[in-house]
Amino acid sequence: MKTTRTALLVLATAALAAVAGAAAGQESQLTYSGSLQYASGDYTLSETTSSILLFNGFSYRKGRWNFAASIPLIDQDSPFVTYVGGTPVPSGRREGVATTSTPSGMSGTSGSGSGRGGTVIVPNPQTLDFNETGLGDPVFRADFAVFERSSSGVRFGVYGAAKLPLADEDSGFGTGEWDFGAGITVSKKVGSTLFLADLGYWSFSDLVDFEIKDPFTYSFGLGRSLEGGRYSVLGSISGYTETVDGIDGPVEAGLTVSRLNSSGRSLNLMLSAGLTESAPDYSLSIGWRVDL
């Protein structure tokens, strides 16, 4: 899923591969990766939403190209957050949810922000006893390394991505429409330290009677390998610009610790915290990667 949390995991995987040099000298490589994640937050609403996400994906690297695909299995305990392009958006407008308006300076049950006028989302109590499990939309991404300089440790790449509308729209795990993204990646390696950046733009489809803005995305990471590349540590900031009118986009800070063994298998543990109200308050995930 192309969420801020997914971007953090992408950065963690890139740091592990680039800092440790796991793929050095290989012309092609097929890799399986997965992660299990728990996230919780109110996403600007009055009710807390807790989610469990199991990701499975494959990537294939050939020369300067890397192709990746992943799909999440999602379990969620509220209907007030909808996944758009894999990103949790506080829609609050699914079946059984009403909206009203308040004058500026007043607040209601929930809404786009405390002390601001506009639409206020009022959950129907009948929807609070809710639990939904199902597959989310798969996301495909293709990366191309425009240039790599081993002498300077600089790498610059471009990518394109697409989310297929396969998830059930009524479950809140998709919008029933295509989403597309594109962007650039930059990395700079100095010894055992690596800086990474991912800048992009996504075109999101809208929900019925609910407009979703197309956001710019960004991820920045600083990683370091330890003990000859067996371990790596990555600190990162990742976020989106505004996706819902009047609500700051989700921004998260994360810390990832990874371990790589000699067979090319890796295990990582990531803890992240939301820096804006539209992001989950916190999330914890464990991920794994196996070269096939």
What's this entry about, in short?
By secondary structure, the protein is mainly beta.
How many distinct beta strands?
A: 17
Helix content: under 10%
**Strand numbers in spatial order across the main sheet:** 1-2-3-9-10-11-12-13-14-15-16-17
Mean of the pLDDT scores?
Answer: 80
The helix tally amounts to 1
Coarse shape: globular
Query: Termini, distance in Å?
Result: 22 Å
Name the assembly state. Answer: single chain
Strand content: over 45%
Instruction: Report on the biggest sheet.
Output: 12 strands, antiparallel, barrel
What gyration radius follows from the Cα positions, in whole Å? 19 Å
Could you state the order of secondary-structure elements as H and E?
HEEEEEEEEEEEEEEEEE
Uncertain residue segments: 19-25, 93-127
